Amino acid sequence: MLMQEKIKIAIIDDDEDDFLLISDCIKDIYDRDFVIDWYRNYDTAIDQIRLKSYHIYFVDYFLDGKTGLDLLKQAAAIKFDRPIILLTGFGSREIDEQAMKSGATDYLIKSEITAEKMERCIRYSLQRTTFLEELKSREAKYRTLFEGSKDAVFIADTRLFFIEVNNAGNALLETKDGTLFGNSLYDFIDNEVQKARIRDLVKSWGKIDDLEIKIKKINSEVRTCLLSLYVLNQDESSAIVHGIIRDITDMRKAEQANALAEKMQANERLARVLAHEIRNPLNNILLSVEMLLPDVNEEGHKNLLGIMERNSLRINNIISELLSLTNHGQLSLEKLSLQIIMEESLKLASDRLQLQKILVEKDYPENPIIISADKSKLVLAFTNILINAAEAMEVEKGRLNIHMTSAKGIHTTVIKDNGRGIPKEHLSKLFEPLFTLKKNGLGLGLTASYSIMQAHKANMHVESTEGEGTSFFIQFEDN
After folding, report:
1. For the domain that residue 89 is a member of, what is the CATH number?
2. Mean pLDDT score, 423-440
3. Both 365 and 404 in a single domain?
4. Range scoring the smallest mean pLDDT among 66-80, 91-105, 181-195, 200-214
5. Structural domain that includes position 434
6. Of the candidates 247, 278, 310, which is a domain's last residue?
7. Please, are residues 444 and 321 in contact by the beta-carbon 8 Å criterion?
8. Which residues pair with 12 in a beta bridge?
9. What CATH number should be reported for the domain holding residue 187?
C-alpha cells in the first residue's frame, strides 16, 4: 500500500553522523521515494510519536539519559500502532528480546546496516503494519457482530465452561453474581439426555447444528433454544468451542398459537355445521314431546316424555353455548385498567377460592395498565381461568399467584397455581371445545376464554408441570 507513495521516516538519534549514515542507506534504496526527518532528543521523539506523522520511526537505544525501551513503553501506553525500529551500536541478545517484548517492530545494529538490510527492514515493517491494521479492522467488525448479535454467542473450553460471552448470552444465561465465568453451559440444562448427547458430540470433535434444548433461567423460567457448537483445534489441551444459542421460545409460542387458532377456526366451522344439523331434528323431537304431553295420562309415560324434554333442552343449551363461542360479536371496547378487570374477576371467583381456602398473591405495577377491552367479556375470560386454577388445587394448600408487568407496549399477566398440573399430552387440546379433564365439565370455559382473548388480539399460552402447577400467560399489546 505504502510502497507506491512517499514513505515518511523519522530518525531519532542524538548523533548527527549516525543520522547521516542511516539516511544515506535509506536513500540508496532504489525504486522508493522517501521523506526523511531527523530529531535529536527524547521529548521531541515522544511528541512526534503522539502525532503519528510518520510511517516508520528509527529510534536510537540511548537518548538523553533514557533508552529506546523507555520510549517503547510510552508508545505502548498511548496504543501507538506505527512501526518502531530500535537502533544500537552493539549487538545484545538481551536488548533484542526486550525490544521485541516492548513492541519494537525490528532491531538493527548500526555497524551492520546496509541498503539491502534497510530495504528489507522497511518493507517488512510496512507489510506487518498493513497486516495488523487489516487484522484490527476485521477484529472490530467481528467484535461488533459478536456483541451486537441478538443470539447468545460464546467461546468455551471443551467442558463448555464459558471463556467469553456476548451481551445476549449474559441476558439469556443469568447468574446470581452477574457473571458466567466459572459456569458451564451444562449448569443451565436440566435434561440429562441432552447433556450426555452434547458431551458425546464435543468429545468426538463433532459439531452440533441447531439442536433443540431447554435452558432453565435463574427465575426457573424455561426457554426453548437451538444450540450450535463447533470445536476448534484438534489438540485437546488447547481446544476451544464456539457456540451460538438462539432463543426460539417466542417463535414456538407463535407457532403453537397459530396452530391452535387454525384448529379453533376448524372447530368453530364444525360446530356451526353440527349445530344446524342437530337442531333441526332436535326441534322436531321437542315439538313432538310438547304435543304428546297433554294427551298422555299414564304417569310412567309422562316421566319418560319429561326426561326426553329435559335432555333435549340440555342438548339445545349446549348447542347455544357452542354457537356463542363461534360468534364473538362486536366488542364494546374502552380504555380500562387491567388491574381493575382482574379484581372484578377475582371477586366473581371469590366463593370458589374461599371454599378451597386458597391463598391469593398479587403482584401489580403501581401505575394502572391501560388496555382497550370489553370489560364484561374479559372479566368472564379471567374468571374462567381463575376457577379452573382453583379447582386444580388442594384444599388449604393452594397458592394462586397473579403477576402483571408492562414494558414497551406489551402488558403481560401471569396466573400461576400450584395445583396438580396438566399432562403434557393434553396441553395442546386445552382450549378445544368439549375437551375437559373434569368429571362433570363441559369443556367450554377455557375455550370461551381463549376466544375472548383472540377477539382482544391477545396472546395466551399455558405452561404446566404435573405435580407442580400450571401457569397461564396472557399478553396484550397497545393498539
Report:
1. 3.40.50.2300
2. 64
3. yes
4. 91-105
5. 334-477
6. 247
7. yes
8. 39, 59
9. 3.30.450.20
User: Is the pTM higher than 0.90?
Assistant: no
Which residues pair with residue 298 across a beta bridge? none
pLDDT in tens, 205-258: 668 888 889 898 877 778 889 999 988 875 656 788 899 999 998 888 777 667
The three cell numbers locating residue 384: 374462567
pLDDT at 445: 63
257-298: per-residue pLDDT in tens?
676 666 666 666 666 776 777 777 888 888 888 888 888 788
Pair 44, 160 in one domain:
no
CA distance linking residue 124 with residue 264, whole number of Å: 72
HSE, CB side, 13 Å, CA atoms: give it for residue 179.
Answer: 4
Judge if 114 and 23 occupy the same domain: yes
Is 15 in the same domain as 97? yes
> How distant is the alpha carbon of residue 292 from its chain centre?
69
Angle of helix 445-455 relative to helix 299-326, nearest 10 degrees? Answer: 30
169 and 98 in one domain?
no
> Is 376 found in the same domain as 303?
no
The contacts of residue 381 (CB under 8 Å, 6+ apart) are 448, 449, 452, 453
Domain count across the chain: 4
Indicate whether 423 and 346 sit together in one domain: yes
